[in-house]
Specification:
369 residues; alpha/beta; Rossmann fold; 2 domains; 7-stranded mixed sheet; 3-stranded parallel sheet; 12 helices; 13 strands
Length: 369
Amino acid sequence: MFSQSGPMTVSEKAHLQGIILACDEINAGGGIDGRLIEPVIVDPAGDDRRYAELATELLVRHKVNAIFGCCLSTSRKAVVPVVERFNGILFYPSVYEGFEYSPNVIYGGAVPNQVIVPLLEYIFAERGKTIALAGSDTLYAREINRIVGEFVADSGGVVLETRYFDFGAPEDQFAAFLQQVIDGGANAVVSTVVGEDTIRFYEAFARTDRPQDGIPIASLTTTESELARMSAAARSGHLSAMPYFGSLDGQRNQQFAETFRKRFGENCHPGVYPAVCYSLVHIFADAVRQSRGSTDSDELLAALSGAVFKGPGGDTFIDVDTNHFAFRPLVGQSTGTGEFRIVWRGANIVRPDPYLVGYDRSLSRAVAT
């Protein structure tokens, strides 16, 4: 259940690629104990009401137990009551703002402690503590920027300006804001601009007058899928904090990236969205096997608790307390070729802390419990 049209097309099509790749791979290997997976694909077209309507249709009419879908938080929040009412399972694959738990949701995306903390620590160490915040006018952006603002303020930094943009905002609006904060001395622009607007935001940045050493856009949402739609000049030199980049070393990832390019094009670089969806489908398949072929939601949820999968980015497991993925965080710098060069790796896997109970807001003292 991913939008193949509308403002989130570029991101949600990337999610869908991971679903298709995993289904193809499982079916080519004989399916789940001989039973093939038949994905039922629907397009909510970026309309939150359609997400809820289609989730109901999938669960009631198609008798589907597991839904893989949603990217924006408003879409997820429209679907969660539906899966709880009909006791389905939502596999949610996108980075989000945290502060949520449902026993009927498996949260595959990173939460703030897994990406905000490492990104800000990297910016503070390498660039400075004067930050501008830009986001699409979404629930996710407003909540993330609230959290970022608290961390920046309590860590001795300054938020120079915060701005939210409607979906479809023209490039000139982005350019005027970006030039203003660059002239104001921002060390980095932390971006929660999402979907199709990401391309115009980065192209606008490329048009600005900047210091010779430059300042980066530092994003929690920009992946290889968005970079592929930009000019080489616009996509080069920016930062993203993610649990996965397609440029990761390792045989598993090399095989995944090779299969991805064969399926979707030799110039396509996999990013975190297809990688997480690919892992979620395999985790679902493993849970069905452990449940002796049953797709009953209660049996699957029991099998999913604490599940581990050796994914493209390394071992991934579902935290038994929160239903969220545990990740090793990464910071990458984008290149003109549309890939990311990894500039920082977390020393350890970071358990999800969706309510930030193990953190105060000073990064000099932020320690996960």
